[in-house]
Amino acid sequence: MFRVDVEEKQLQKLTPKSFSELGLLERFDIQEWIDKSPEILGEELLIIGKEVILSSGKRLDLLAIDKNAALVIIELKRDDSGEAVEWQAIKYASYCANFLPGEIYKQFASYLLVAESDAQKAVEEFIDADIEDLNKSQRIILASRQFNSEVISAVIWLREFGVNIQCTRLAPFLDSDGGLFINPETIIPLPEAKDYIERKEKKQRSVTQSKREWTGYWFVNVGEGPTRNWDDNVKFGFIGAGQGVRYSSALKRLSIGDKIYAYIKGLGYVGLGEVTSPAVMVRDFIVDDTQKPLLESGLTAPQADANRDSEELAEWAVGIRWIKWVPKSKAKTFAGAFANQNVVCKLSDEQTLRFVQSEFGE
Predict the structure, then answer these.
(1) Residue 96, domain extent
(2) Is 184 in contact with 30 (CB distance < 8 Å)?
(3) Are 169 and 249 contained in the same domain?
(4) Do 355 and 276 reside in the same domain of the chain?
């Protein structure tokens, strides 16, 4: 960085320094500068709090509002960001996301030492958005002289998933007369490419979300073995899983009215059904058609009652009205069909959904 001597047509090199070398502190110097001149961070911000104590007991360096009515969490580090500043700021943002407008006005009023009505008026005059948009979104600004490479990597990754977070470098320099200069530089996102980067990130998120958007149907791995089989599932109107909490708890994700596509590992899809009753231990399941206990209905699975009295180890069952099904010998599949080792998961693959709908309906 250079200072220009216009008359002598010379450049005078400025000497880079660290804040610690200069005896400057994060809280009593850097924080005060930003509090009084937030535009050093590259935009107009309305500071509404300093050393804000959150419900967790943690202290937030600076809290601001931007022109779009978003809350801005500003986290400062002096000479080095450390390895976890982004996580610290995310926790703060999660607390601030719950602030109601009245709480924001109260915080700002306390900061300004004015009435809440005056604080509200100041906010309304500052923002360019509708007041109803206040705190509908949150942003994070990290400011430090240097940023750890792990922080940079994390910030780039977080932005890809829609977290509005930026890194601004504040670099101090001294001239030959001992004058102090601060060079602010936003490094993520680069100001020159900000619009392009934000559009690209938005497009990437849109594509990702469209690919992952839930179809509204559930994938269920019905499985076969000594404790359950597909023939019993069809005959008695249920699906089962168990012999461990990991497996039985998956059934509890299903609610009455949910539509499922049943799948047998290694074979393919075998049926479409609608949930008629929530998950219960197999000993407590009553068959709809006969109103008899399932374990007294003639199941062909030889160990269906294994661990029947243990909530953790027993088989569990969910009632199903089968809309259309095929025997496992005629299971339906295609190259690239969605399959998952979990007992229950959301069916989000559009190609697979189109396939099973063509085979089983809905």
Answers:
(1) 2-211
(2) no
(3) no
(4) yes
Give the CATH number for residue 342: 3.10.590
Number of Cα atoms under 13 Å in the Cβ half of residue 158: 20
Q: What is the pLDDT along the chain (362 residues), one digit of tens a residue?
A: 888 888 888 898 999 999 999 999 999 999 999 999 999 999 999 999 999 998 888 899 999 999 999 999 999 999 998 888 999 999 999 999 999 999 999 999 999 999 999 999 999 999 988 888 999 999 999 999 999 999 999 999 998 888 999 999 999 999 888 999 999 999 998 765 566 666 666 666 665 554 456 668 999 999 888 999 999 999 999 999 998 888 888 899 899 999 999 999 989 999 999 999 999 999 999 999 899 999 999 999 999 999 999 999 999 999 999 999 999 999 999 998 988 888 998 888 889 999 999 999 87
| Last-in-domain residue among 151, 186, 211 | 211
Q: Which two tokens stand for residue 105?
A: 């006005």
pTM of the model: 0.56
- How many residues does the structure list for the chain? 362
